Amino acid sequence: MMTVSVDAELCLGSEQCARAVPAVFTFDDVVGLVGADPTAQVLVAPTAEESVRRASFNCPAAAIYIEDHR
Ligand code: SF4
């Protein structure tokens, strides 16, 4: 099981992750950031795990944290 969270303090609002994996990353138009709630831990569906890993790797702010609970 994988969970993912975004550090809103670090997020630059590039929207890259939201465009790449919209089922997991939601862009908050009001705040201008992804994952405006820094405490939010989102459970990732097994089929989306690889995309989320790639999004984390490609995040220009290194703001995407993955926890693998296996
Ligand atoms: S890719 Fe990184 S910097 Fe860009 S919106 Fe997502 S979390 Fe924020």
Main traits of this protein?
70 residues; alpha+beta; Alpha-Beta Plaits; three-stranded antiparallel β-sheet; 2 helices; binds iron/sulfur cluster
Structural account:
This protein has 70 residues and is of the alpha+beta class. It has one domain: Alpha-Beta Plaits. Helices cover 21% and strands 24% of the residues. The strands form two sheets. Strands 4-1-5 form a three-stranded antiparallel beta sheet, with helices on one face. Strand 2 (27-28) and strand 3 form a beta hairpin. Iron/sulfur cluster is lined by residues 6, 11-17, 34, 59-61, 63-64.
Outline of the structure:
By secondary structure, the chain is an alpha+beta fold.
Shape: globular
Q: Into how many domains do the coordinates divide?
A: 1
Query: Quaternary state, please?
Result: single chain
Distance between the termini: 6 Å
Number of strands: 5
Kindly provide the radius of gyration, computed on alpha-carbon positions and rounded to a whole number of angstroms. Answer: 11 Å
Bound compounds, each kind once, are: iron/sulfur cluster
CATH level 1 class label: Alpha Beta
User: Secondary-structure element order, as H and E?
Assistant: EHEEEHE
Second-tier CATH architecture: 2-Layer Sandwich
Derived from helix and strand composition plus strand pairing, the structural class reads alpha+beta
What would the CATH topology be? Alpha-Beta Plaits
